[in-house]
């Protein structure tokens, strides 16, 4: 590699040196008022432009043939087929326009480069032509918009089916957690105040709120001591090196106090309406893999605990950002189990090993490692698989 | 050839014409100058330096992308043992480089550098004005630009590294100081630098607008202005309307970072602590950012389109086709560019109905863009194309504008964006249309107006070499990226090796990096040519390209006030090239109409 770079540099330097030589010679010959660029040079450049065009076209086609196999295999979700069709139509249109306009451009350059007795044609405007190339693109684009929006409509507004799974995907630096609703088929309430070591995504059952309150109070007690210590260090010793730590500790203290207030409020609400917070008891939390069932609509809710992330499912033509402080949604129905997808991909000459979930919004140093395996199973296997996990209520109490 | 550089710069102006009596010291002439021509050169040279820095950064992270984990003395040399131990790039520094690279190229090279250079140079010249409306504000504008550049560069040297949240600096990543090292002091400096940059840009833009409206010479009606001026004017309007929004966007971020407010933050549990801030929304930031962000891409593109309109027409020896349609297209693009920002946010969790609206407006913008392309093609049809280096770059830009604009049709369609948002497809798209496109426009401008700036010519053969290395490099780097994107490869990834899905695409990355290295080497040909020609280039005559616009009626020597005597009066539009009934193939704007001749367009 270094050798290659070295060679390129040498080549360029030699070329520059040669050009400089000939440049100085020609300057001497022509005197000052001659044309600055000779007709023969222009001819060469016109020819090179056309050659470049030809090579560009060939290389584009070669790339499509050679790298086409890297393009994602056909969609593994039901709605994805619509997207793929729209993509194909748009792509054909784009390639057509690309080739036509470029052929015209390279052609004109080759045909009309400056020649001795060539005269340019006075052609400042032409209403008919201008109308044509306003109206034709307008019609094409309006149809594309209509087609595109109808696809968008049907992808983004999918009606729940009777047997759809509502599940939740929670992102944080740099991992994913999935939550399934359990037998009651509803996801329990969540709030970031309830997050603790054992309740990583903040599910709000009565027990979880209580235990988070205990934790929070422990933190407050510890922080109060820290603040006092640092305070005396900073004030007595005038030791400004600890001032930042003190600031941090004070911020954290007031954050935990706010958390305490919120949790107390939640506790009171619990007392009034215990059923309201029941939903989370039988939720199932899975931390290693996202399991999905074939042919069963998956209605995702996304959340983030810290910064923005994006849940990107390339094979399923699905993506949605995970936003702290807000729930976001996306719905799709897997069409092939992981095993079936291998065959589908193979029949298209493409490689497929497994489904993966990709974090697709810059989220920190290990953003590039924030992957999550996805496994699509048949309904039966899926149920069996989920049944191997403890429900949240038990997990929390260590049952 | 004697050393003529100094002559052109000054003495002649005084001795020969005695136009300006007051004495200029070196400092008032070259450093704190209020002369639009000097300020233009200051912008250009600062931008060249920033571009070299930005390009160097991209080489470092391209090496990592092609050969992840490999040791490169090159990286270690520039980054030291902390950020590239043994020459292996640190993932934090990778993100920092990507961020600062983007910021520098988008704001400092293509916004500040491009508009700053050519609006300053050409607005007074082409309008027949003696200088900008306010030379003083113009000077301040440059020095604020310089200051903000220095701060941005300085931010690279702080202990925790420069800002690393991407050039879009989305919170909370950019707001929580510990979320990534670069969100410490580095991010603060980034925001300070941008605030100063925005002030610079606003002063510049206001000046451009006032100048265009007030200082046109006699006969220079709005519809006799060259398209360059139209583009600069509209660009300035876009800047004045959108940059203040970025300023407030940044101010609110500063508040969130330093003063405990919660405009963008809510319900965050970070490193064991449930943060106190609640009630804000990162989406607010994204809306504010892209409300500037999309107009910004046209703030970058329009000046470049303006420059190539002039270059293509002059070098085709033909009037620009559809002058009025071009103006209407520019206005339409400018208007639409304010109502499309949501296309950067289809996948943010924004209500899908908004996605519908933004898809509609976004795809509409392709209509005026298409009109412009067809008009350029019609302009070169049956022309007499003088393929000067400037013309080569201008035609190259048309090609890039087509290629990148077309992939915009895919991204702008919300349903298709679902699967390619934030992948390398986007990176390919915007580098072709905006990055390379605008840089090509800028190169076209530099080659074309170099004689106007320095009284000398750049060497055409080196220009051709530079052009070929650049266009081959650009297509070699950015075209394959579309394939990566269609394979699902996300942008801003330090390495693709963690994923099973991306195991096989590495050959594409290697090829891309090879082309990137080649293109970078090519830029040194330009830099050599540029600086050599300033001092040793062949002397140009007053109107080397046979142009119609007024800047070529002013003497080669730099004088205050541009024209030694009365300023020229304008009698016709700027595109009378090869007009029937004239002996020459160009008729400058200052030439009165012949009897019975119509000001024909
Ligand atoms: C003509 C000049 C254009 C410029 C300078 C330009 C510039 C850009 C830039 C800088 C981005 C990247 C933003 C980011 O994600 O960080 C971008 C993305 C995008 N561009 Fe363009 N673009 C242009 C034309 C178009 C056209 C004609 C369309 C549509 C018809 C378009 C649609 C889009 C869309 C939808 C995105 C967002 C993609 C995504 O983030 O997933 N662009 N463009
Ligand atoms: Cu992430
Ligand atoms: Cu945009």
Question: Can you identify the CATH class of chain B?
Answer: Mainly Alpha
Number of strands of chain A: 10
End-to-end span of chain A in angstroms? Answer: 60 Å
CATH architecture of chain B: Up-down Bundle
- Determine the number of helices of chain B (DSSP H or I, runs of at least 4 residues): 18
Name the chain pair whose interface involves the most residues.
Answer: A-B, 128 and 140 residues
Write down the overall mean pLDDT of chain B.
91
* Strand content bin of chain B: under 5%
Tell me the strand order in the biggest sheet of chain A: 3-2-1-5-8
Number of folding domains of chain B? 1
Percent range for β-strand residues of chain A: 5-15%
Structural class of chain A: alpha+beta
Just name the CATH architecture of the domain at 281-397 in chain A. Answer: Sandwich
- Largest β-sheet summary of chain A: 5 strands, mixed
- Assembly type: heterodimer
- Strands of the largest sheet of chain B, in order across it? 1-2
Helix content of chain A: 40-55%
Give the helices and strands of chain A as they follow along the chain. Answer: HHHHEEHHEEEEEEHEEHH
Contiguous low-pLDDT stretches of chain A (5 residues minimum) are: none
Q: Could you give the topology of this structure?
A:
The complex is a heterodimer of chains A (399) and B (601).
Chain A: H1 2-30, H2 39-67, H3 80-112, H4 127-156, E1 165-172, E2 175-180, H5 206-237, H6 243-272, E3 284-286, E4 290-293, E5 298-304, E6 309-313, E7 318-322, E8 328-332, H7 338-347, E9 355-359, E10 371-377, H8 379-387, H9 392-397
Parallel strand pairs in A: 1-5, 4-10
Antiparallel strand pairs in A: 1-2, 2-3, 5-8, 6-7, 6-9, 9-10
Chain B: H1 5-9, H2 11-15, H3 26-31, H4 36-66, H5 73-83, H6 91-127, H7 135-154, H8 185-214, H9 227-258, E1 269-270, E2 273-274, H10 282-316, H11 323-336, H12 352-364, H13 366-380, H14 389-411, H15 414-420, H16 424-454, H17 460-486, H18 506-536
Antiparallel strand pairs in B: 1-2
The structure holds protoporphyrin IX containing FE (HEM) and copper (II) ion (2 copies).
Residues 168, 297, 301, 343-344, 362-363, 365-366, 369, 405, 408-409, 411-412, 417, 421-422, 426, 429-430, 433-434 of chain B line the site of protoporphyrin IX containing FE.
């Amino acid at each position: 590699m270094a050798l290659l770079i070295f060679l390129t540099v040498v080549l360029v330097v030699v070329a520059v040196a040669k050009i400089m030589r000939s440049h100085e010679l020609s300057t001497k010959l022509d005197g000052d008022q001659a044309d600055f660029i000779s007709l023969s040079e222009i001819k060469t450049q016109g020819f090179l432009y056309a050659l470049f065009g030809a090579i560009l076209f060939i290389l584009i086609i070669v790339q499509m043939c050679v790298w086409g196999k890297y393009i994602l295999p056909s969609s593994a979700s039901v709605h994805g087929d619509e997207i793929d069709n729209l993509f194909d139509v748009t792509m054909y249109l784009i390639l057509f326009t690309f080739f036509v306009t470029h052929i015209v451009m390279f052609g004109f350059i080759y045909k009309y480069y400056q020649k001795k007795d060539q005269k340019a044609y006075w052609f400042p405007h032409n209403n008919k032509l201008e109308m044509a190339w306003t109206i034709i693109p307008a019609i094409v684009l309006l149809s594309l918009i209509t087609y595109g929006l109808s696809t968008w409509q049907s992808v983004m507004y999918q009606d729940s089916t009777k047997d759809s799974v509502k599940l939740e995907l929670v992102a944080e630096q740099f991992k994913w957690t999935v939550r399934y609703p359990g037998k009651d088929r509803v996801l329990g309430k969540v709030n970031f105040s309830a997050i603790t070591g054992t309740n990583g995504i903040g599910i709000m059952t009565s027990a979880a709120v209580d235990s988070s309150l205990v934790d929070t109070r422990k933190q407050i007690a510890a922080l109060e001591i820290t603040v006092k210590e640092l305070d005396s260090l900073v004030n007595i010793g005038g030791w400004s090196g600890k001032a930042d730590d003190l600031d941090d500790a004070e911020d954290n203290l007031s954050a935990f106090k706010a958390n305490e207030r919120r949790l107390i409020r939640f506790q009171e609400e619990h007392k009034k309406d215990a059923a309201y917070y029941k939903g989370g008891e039988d939720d199932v939390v899975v931390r290693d893999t996202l399991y999905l069932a074939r042919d069963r609509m998956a209605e995702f809710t996304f959340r983030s605990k810290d910064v923005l992330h994006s849940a990107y499912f390339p094979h399923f033509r699905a993506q949605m950002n995970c936003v702290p402080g807000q729930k976001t949604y996306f719905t799709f129905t897997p069409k092939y189990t992981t095993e079936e997808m291998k065959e589908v991909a193979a029949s298209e000459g493409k490689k497929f090993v497994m489904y993966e979930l990709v974090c697709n919004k810059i989220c920190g140093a290990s953003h590039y490692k924030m992957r999550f395996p996805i496994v699509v199973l048949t309904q039966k296997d899926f149920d069996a698989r989920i049944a191997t996990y403890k429900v949240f209520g038990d997990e929390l109490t260590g049952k | 050839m004697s050393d003529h550089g100094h002559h052109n710069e000054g003495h002649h102006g005084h001795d020969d014409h005695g136009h300006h009596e007051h004495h200029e010291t070196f400092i008032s002439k070259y450093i704190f100058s209020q002369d639009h021509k000097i300020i233009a050169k200051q912008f250009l040279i600062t931008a060249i330096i920033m571009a070299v820095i930005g390009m160097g950064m991209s080489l470092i992270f391209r090496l990592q992308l092609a050969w992840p984990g490999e040791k490169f003395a090159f990286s270690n040399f520039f980054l030291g043992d902390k950020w590239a131990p043994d020459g292996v790039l640190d993932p934090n520094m990778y993100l920092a480089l990507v961020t600062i690279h983007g910021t520098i190229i988008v704001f400092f090279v293509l916004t500040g550098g491009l508009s700053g250079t050519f609006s300053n140079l050409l607005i007074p010249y082409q309008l027949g004005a003696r200088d900008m409306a306010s030379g003083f504000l113009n000077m301040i504008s440059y020095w604020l630009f310089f200051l903000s550049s220095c701060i941005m560069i300085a931010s690279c040297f702080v202990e925790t590294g420069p800002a690393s949240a991407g050039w879009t600096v989305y919170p909370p990543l950019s707001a929580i100081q510990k979320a990534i090292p670069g969100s410490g002091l580095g991010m603060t400096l980034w925001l300070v630098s941008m605030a100063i940059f925005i002030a610079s840009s606003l002063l510049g833009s206001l000046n451009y607008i006032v100048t265009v409206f007030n200082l046109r010479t006699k006969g220079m009606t709005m519809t006799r202005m060259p398209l360059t001026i139209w583009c600069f004017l509209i660009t300035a309007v876009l800047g004045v309307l959108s940059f203040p929004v970025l300023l407030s966007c940044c101010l609110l971020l500063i508040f969130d970072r330093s003063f405990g407010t919660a405009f963008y933050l809510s319900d965050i549990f970070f490193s064991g602590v449930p943060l106190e801030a609640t009630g804000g929304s990162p989406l607010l930031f994204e809306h504010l950012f892209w409300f500037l962000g999309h107009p910004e891409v046209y703030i970058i593109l329009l000046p470049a389109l303006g420059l190539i309109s002039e270059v293509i027409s002059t070098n085709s020896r033909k009037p620009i086709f559809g002058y009025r349609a071009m103006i209407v297209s520019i206005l339409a693009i400018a208007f639409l560019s304010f109502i499309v920002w949501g296309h950067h946010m289809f996948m943010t969790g924004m209500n899908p109905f908004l996605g519908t609206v933004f898809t509609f407006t976004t795809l509409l913008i392709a209509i005026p863009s298409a009109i412009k392309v067809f008009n350029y093609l019609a302009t070169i049809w049956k022309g007499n194309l003088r393929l000067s280096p400037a013309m080569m770059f201008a035609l190259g830009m048309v090609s890039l504008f087509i290629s990148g604009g077309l992939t915009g049709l895919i991204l702008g369609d919300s349903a298709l964006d679902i699967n390619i948002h934030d992948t390398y497809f986007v990176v390919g798209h915007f580098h072709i249309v905006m990055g390379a496109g605008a840089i090509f426009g800028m190169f076209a401008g530099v080659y074309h107006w170099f004689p106007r700036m320095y009284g000398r010519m750049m060497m055409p053969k080196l220009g051709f070499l530079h052009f070929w290395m650049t266009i081959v490099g650009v297509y070699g780097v950015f075209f394959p990226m579309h394939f990566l994107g269609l394979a699902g490869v996300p942008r801003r990834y330090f390495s693709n090796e963690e994923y099973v899905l991306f195991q096989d695409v590495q050959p594409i990355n290697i090829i891309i990096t090879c082309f990137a290295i080649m293109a970078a080497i090519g830029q040194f040909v330009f830099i050599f040519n540029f600086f050599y020609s300033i001092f040793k280039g062949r002397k140009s005559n007053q109107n080397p390209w046979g142009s119609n616009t007024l800047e070529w009626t002013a003497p080669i020597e730099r004088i205050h006030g541009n024209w030694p005597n009365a300023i020229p009066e304008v009698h016709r539009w700027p595109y009378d090239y090869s007009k029937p009934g004239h002996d020459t193939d160009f008729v400058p704007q200052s030439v009165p109409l012949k009897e019975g001749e119509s000001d024909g367009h």
